[in-house]
């Protein structure tokens, strides 16, 4: 999986090169926005106040030198996604969020593209957030398909848009006019990644409800996909909540109980499943997808399997990723998303 470290120097350049923000300058922008909303009397639970307080926390972490993201368990929340963080740190964007909130609109009214939204977790009352992608052609009240994407272990927090796989998937969502939401896994009290189980499952379901409240989602076209650890999460969540999803696509995921709790594949009998895996995967054995495919076929499930041929001579696919990066192929173009969109529930 990915191991990436984002080190912020004394200045942070916003996307497009329009603005340069130091932690102290950024704090001024955030503090001014919070002060305006407090003077207006905006509830602390309003989306505008929540996201500004979330970013206030990020800036305090930056000043402590906690500006990194990697796969290791962290005791303080990292910057969940640098690209989104820098975009929303733009003074004009903060102004839009404040203006919308003062007008009693959704804080992100009229704002499209890759966004971070904040919420208070029902698990422990903590201020958390998730990523959402809204197509630029978004025109409510028209209803839109929704795809839930679960990140891998190496992504640590949400999605890394610099990854070719994630960048391609966002482009596919834009092209097919699909809303994408990416919740974050949380660590359990034992210090191990709980992926989509236990408290994390509660978070994901809360985020799903929030997205359906904030955007016109077609509830007959809600889909689930994820890579590596998120592939397990896709198996797990769909097996626990089969009524929620019109189709699912685990990518190089594990289900057999080798690393996580064993998934009940029988619960997936009535959900169309697309499996993708590399044939030389040294992290999650390809047998995980092969056996899942065979078993799902045997119980009469609608299932398709795409196995990627990896060359041992390839310095990237095999040398660096050990054949595990099936996501680079699964999310290339619109193929996976098109497969999901072929399926629709009849509620």
How would you explain this protein's 3D organization?
The protein has helices at 23-40, 47-63, 82-88, 91-102, 164-176, 198-214, 229-240, 287-298, 315-320, 327-330, 335-341; strands spanning 12-13, 20-21, 113-120, 127-134, 144-150, 179-182, 217-227, 247-251, 273-278, 303-308. By secondary structure, the protein is of the alpha/beta class. It is globular, with a radius of gyration of 20 Å. The strands form 2 sheets. An 8-stranded mixed beta sheet has the order 3-4-6-5-7-8-9-10, with helices on both faces. It has a two-stranded antiparallel ribbon with strand order 1-2. Helix 1 packs antiparallel against helix 2 (47-63) and helix 1 (23-40) runs parallel beside helix 4 (91-102). 36% of the residues lie in helices and 17% in strands.
Summary tags:
11 helices, 347 residues, eight-stranded mixed sheet, Rossmann fold, disordered N terminus, alpha/beta, globular, two-stranded antiparallel sheet, 2 domains
Q: Return the structural class.
A: alpha/beta
Largest sheet: 8 strands, mixed
Q: Which strand order does the major sheet show? A: 3-4-6-5-7-8-9-10
User: CATH topology of the largest domain, which one?
Assistant: Rossmann fold
User: How many discrete domains?
Assistant: 2
Give the N-to-C terminal Cα separation: 38 Å
* Binned strand content: 15-25%
Number of strands: 10
Estimate percent helicity: 25-40%
CATH superfamily of the largest domain: Alpha/Beta hydrolase fold, catalytic domain
Pattern of helices and strands? EEHHHHEEEHEHEHEEHEHHH
Task: Report the C-alpha radius of gyration, rounded.
Answer: 20 Å
Low-confidence spans = 1-23, 68-77
